[in-house]
Amino acid sequence: DTEVTQTPKHLVMGMTNKKSLKCEQHMGHRAMYWYKQKAKKPPELMFVYSYEKLSINESVPSRFSPECPNSSLLNLHLHALQPEDSALYLCASRSIGESRTEAFFGQGTRLTVV
Amino acid sequence: GENVEQHPSTLSVQEGDSAVIKCTYSDSASNYFPWYKQELGKGPQLIIDIRSNVGEKKDQRIAVTLNKTAKHFSLHITETQPEDSAVYFCAPKGAVSGGYQKVTFGTGTKLQVIP
Asked: Would the pLDDT of A1 be above 70?
């Protein structure tokens, strides 16, 4: 199984809503990432989890709250988002400590904030 | 932070022709050089990668060449097919900072293969 699964695929939410994005992988990867990708732009790193601990927060606003409940799951909790937060949110995972350092990406969640 | 640039930003080729995309980076500590393909509505997928101790790597129609001295690496696609149409990103892996080896995505190249 070399897949990273993200749910939902599409999400429309109001600015007062609370929602969560989910990401799951069963490759035994101990590094997991959230990226944000706007149209026609490269992915931008938001958060990095290493061994289920948050190791990098790229100055992301607190309305985005990540959570890593176990080594296979990564969540991104959303609250009071703004329309400019509409984007494709990508989850990725990677093995730590191996010579091959490929990142596996999920298909993304297309988020629209109205 | 690392500066990563790709050229060209868009590329149109006839089916069967070759395509070359160049990625220039600034971090001399970079030691892993992947290329990702992103199709519409999907996440990026690795298509080929190279490590810093190798100058060239080939996988069927796809090859990557690395020039560490000049700090650039290139993606070569031969005999292009319509299904090669996508956005391609380089993502060199740089120096370790705060226990994390930072990955910076290039600006992206939209490749269109015309049948």
From this structure: no
pLDDT tens digits along B92-113: 987 666 556 667 899 999 999 9
pLDDT digits (tens, 9 = 90+) for A16-36: 999 999 999 999 999 999 999
What local confidence, expressed as pLDDT, does residue B28 receive? 87
Task: For chain A, give percent helix, strand, coil, nearest 5.
Answer: 5, 55, 40
Closest residue in B to A110 (Cα) is B41
Residue B55: alpha-carbon gap to chain centroid: 14
* Rounded-to-10 torsion of CA B15, B106, A65, A1: 50
Q: Which of B34, B100, B105 is nearest residue A56 as measured by Cβ atoms? A: B100
- A10 at interface of B, judged by CB pairs closer than 8 A: no
A103 is written with which tokens?
């990142």
User: What does the block give as tokens for B105?
Assistant: 């995505």
Tokens at A73, concatenated: 């799951």
Taking contacts as CB-CB distances below 8 angstroms, the residues of chain B near A32 are none
Count of Cβ atoms closer than 10 Å to residue A80 Cβ:
14
CA A53 – CA B76 distance, rounded (Å): 38
For residue B90, is pLDDT > 70?
Answer: yes
Q: Does A42 sit within 8 Å of B42, measured CB to CB?
A: no
- In sequence order, what are the residues at sequence separation of 6 or more whose Cβ sits closer than 8 angstroms to the Cβ of residue B71? B24, B25, B26, B28, B30
CA B67 to chain CA centroid, Å, is 13
Would you state the structure tokens that stand for residue B55, as one six-digit string? Answer: 């100058």
